[in-house]
Write a structure and sequence with these properties.
The protein is 50% helix and 8% strand. The radius of gyration is 19 Å and the shape is elongated.
Length: 125
Amino acid sequence: MSSVRFVDNSEKVKKDVKRLRDIALTESAVAVQGNCVALCPRETGHLQGSIGYITGTGAKEGGDGTIQGSVKEGEAVVGTNVEYAAHVEYGTKFKQARSYMRAGFDKSIPIVAAIFKKHLQTGDK
């Protein structure tokens, strides 16, 4: 008589998926940050140098240390806390908008999709 044994690996699978998601999230934040920095208008370099990211995994790169705070698990934030950043991004009545954050994010969409596909669809470690 043969016997069938059931092995529940659901916790291991959940752990693996979470780990791969976190890797993909950090890689994606790096890609978005890079595109935002590349598109950022440069006068003094202060704004460019302040663009950073933080993820819910604790991964953090803040350029000059301006990205602070906490982010929920499974999330990432790319940004800056330089006071005039919004004036550059959205413009003022005296200066035209020079989008670098939204444009950097938009440019990153296919890259982020490929990163998540690589890690979560194929399980690449």
